[in-house]
Structures are given as structure tokens and as C-alpha cells.
Structure prediction request, 312 residues.
Amino acid sequence: MSDDAAPLSVDTAVYKTLLESTQAIPWRIDLQTMRFSYIGPQIERLLGWSPCSWVTVDDWVERMHSEDRERVVSFCIEQSRNGIDHEADYRALKTDGSYVWIRDVVHVLRNEAGEAEALVGFMFDISERKKSEEKLMRLQRELEELSYQDGLTGVANRRLLDSVLESEWASAKRAGQALSFIMLDIDCFKLYNDYYGHLAGDDCLRRVAHIVSTSAARPRDLLARFGGEEFALVLPETDLEAACQVAERCRAALCDAAIPHRASDVSHLVTVSMGVATATPAEGGIPASLIEQADRRLYQAKQSGRDRIVGE
Prediction:
């Protein structure tokens, strides 16, 4: 453009045309009256509400999902009072009763004296973005769950066991309560694999895990695969007597299941040996000491002939 070219002249109607041709929905609220002085006609295409139905901020508030309302309104009021530009995501009500995810981008307009006199902004339909975000979060949760799950048996793995044991230890320490731990080993499992094959061995592990998990069925009890044919149970708020009762219940359930084990040196059925330990964390110690104590008692059970529980 040459230096003597005439300056461009853009009138209000052109600006309005440009605004109303976008997917974003422009709006303006006068702070003195808290009324809409303008909202783009795109609002009707998106939500079904006609522009003339947007009179005051109360219409904006009432057409917001009840679960989002308090959070968004409080935030926007605080930011607007402080003269701070801001953004807010929320679900907006459509005339058919469904909801659309909206992102409001808000700018504070000031007069010559520097006082806030109006809010102007754009509403954006972010429903597809939200669907993508929710899908990604769901996938992340599923991956996280898989990272804490034993791939063969479906119960918790050692990683989750260590995490839960540490957490329950801290909880028991604060509350001054007992925490119990059971180590469980399938008797003569190598012989089982040799006799029936490894695929049958995998199925046996899955069946034992299912039986034990349903026998210790309190919500906070955790069954985990410790390694190989060994499993572990974390029993919060459980003293030694109660923990031994849980162990006996698991042992009886496995006996009732009557899983054949013709190669066993102990029985013609699958049996287990268990070591039970209890600690009161408020008295000192560390979670590893509870595992070590249960492991020692499991060793005693195996040395004493297997198919038994040692709890002291």
C-alpha cells in the first residue's frame, strides 16, 4: 500500500457481520445493570434459546448445569470484581433438556477512569474436546488399573500390595489399630505344573485367587499375588485372632472347591499353607517387618507338613 492510500473505514455493521459469522458466540454484559446488551444469534443454533431470551445474568446462571453452577458463578464473580480477564468451562442447558460443554472467555472493559464497566466475551462449543478429554482420562485410568493388576490372576500385583500396605500401616498408626497380613502358598505347586502342565497351573492360580478373594470379602481387604504361587492378604483393623479366622475360612473354601492334585505330597486335592502376622503400628516398626513375620510363619507351616495355618 502506498503512503498516500486512503485508510480503511470499517463501520459497526461490518464488525457485527464478522462477529456473527464465526462459530464463537460473542456477548456483552453491562456491569451496572448486570444485563446483556448483546449476544450473538449463534446462541440459538447452539442451545436453542433465542437471543432476546438472554436478558440478565440470571438467565446465564439458570441455564447452567446445577453441578457446575456454584463453582463457575463464584469464580466469575470474583474475577470480574477484581477486573481480571478469565475463562470458565461449564455445561449449558439446551431447550431440549440436554447439555453442551461451553468455554466462556471473558474480558473486562474499563472506562476512561479505569473503572470496570462491562464484560465482553465469547462462548465456544467445546463438547467434542471434552469427549476426547474424557476418553483420554478413561484410558489413563484403565492403564493405571492394569499397572496395578496381576496379568494372570486379575488380583492386585506386588506394586499395589506395597502401596496399600504402606497406606494401611499409616492409617493404623494414626488410629492405634491392629493391622494383619497373611502369606499364602499353594502346596507342591511345582509338582502340579509338572503333572498337569503349565496351562492347567495358570488356571489353578486363577481359581485359588478367586476363591481366596471371595472368602476375604470386606471392602478394604486386599488380595495380591506376591509372586509365583504365593499370595498375600492385607487385613486392616484386624487382630491376630480375627486374621486367623479369615485364613481358616480361605483354607476351608479351597477344601470345598476340591481342585484335584494327584501329584501332591500332602493331599489328592490342592491345599495351601499360610502364615499370619499382626502388628500395631503405633507401637513402632515398619511394614516390611509385618511381611517378614508372616513369611517366617508361612515357612513354619510348610516345614510342619503343609496344609496348615501358623499364626504365632
Q: What stands out?
A: Confidence is low (pLDDT under 50) at residues 1-9. Residues 180 and 278 are 4 Å apart (CA to CA).
